[in-house]
Design goal:
The protein is built from twelve helices and no strands. It is mainly α.
């Protein structure tokens, strides 16, 4: 079994920051979109379904574009900043997200895979949300769920989660501990953030 690790091909944060501050804003944002939109779209789709993913990702980059002058590289990286914006937009559809997990709990069908979305990730995503895990996610608070999924699905560090959610690292740790305990009970004691295969397989 492979330990949970950062995704291969992780983008250079310095390059992201340079693109965000490019004098040609349109060119810089086009490059940022190409670098981060596919992963962000997959993440949003797994939380809200494909129906809203396009709109949420598009709005995420629109908001980021308008806030680009306020981004401070000294306070963090572009990637968690983008996920933080997306997270705020996802929170506007909290009821739909819970409904999504309850549907997954009944069917075990991940709509991201069922629709053929992101075929390069099919091997992992095909079993990413089982009945047991989906039921557990539906019962987590929004804050606990945000922390768990950023770490387990997107391989964020505690510091990156803290930046994305604008909370202290200590709060990240406490939320993760609480979410992990709840999900472990459902998964028969398996730590959902320690081993990728266990989290994926439920």
């Amino acid at each position: 079994m492979r330990a949970l690790s950062r995704p291969e091909g992780r983008r250079d944060p310095a390059e992201d920051a340079a693109l965000l501050q490019d004098r040609d804003a349109s060119r810089g944002f086009a490059a940022l979109y190409d670098r981060h939109a596919p992963d962000l779209h997959r993440y949003v789709a797994r939380r809200l379904g494909l129906g809203l993913a396009d709109d949420v990702v598009a709005e995420t980059f629109l908001v980021a574009y308008h806030r680009r002058q306020r981004f401070d590289p000294a306070r963090g990286e572009v990637r968690p900043w983008l996920y933080g914006i997306a997270g705020n937009l996802i929170s506007q559809h909290r009821r739909l997200e819970v409904t999504q997990y309850r549907a997954l709990a009944r069917t075990s069908v991940d709509p991201v895979v069922a629709d053929g979305h992101d075929s390069t990730d099919d091997r992992v995503a095909a079993t990413a949300v089982t009945r047991q895990l989906a039921a557990a996610l539906a019962h987590l608070s929004k804050g606990d769920r945000d922390v768990l999924l950023l770490i387990a699905w997107e391989c964020f560090s505690y510091e990156e989660v803290a930046q994305a959610l604008e909370i202290p690292v200590g709060t990240v740790r406490s939320r993760l501990h609480r979410a992990r305990k709840k999900v472990q009970k459902v998964l028969g004691g398996v730590d959902p953030t320690a081993v990728r295969e266990e989290f994926a397989d439920g």
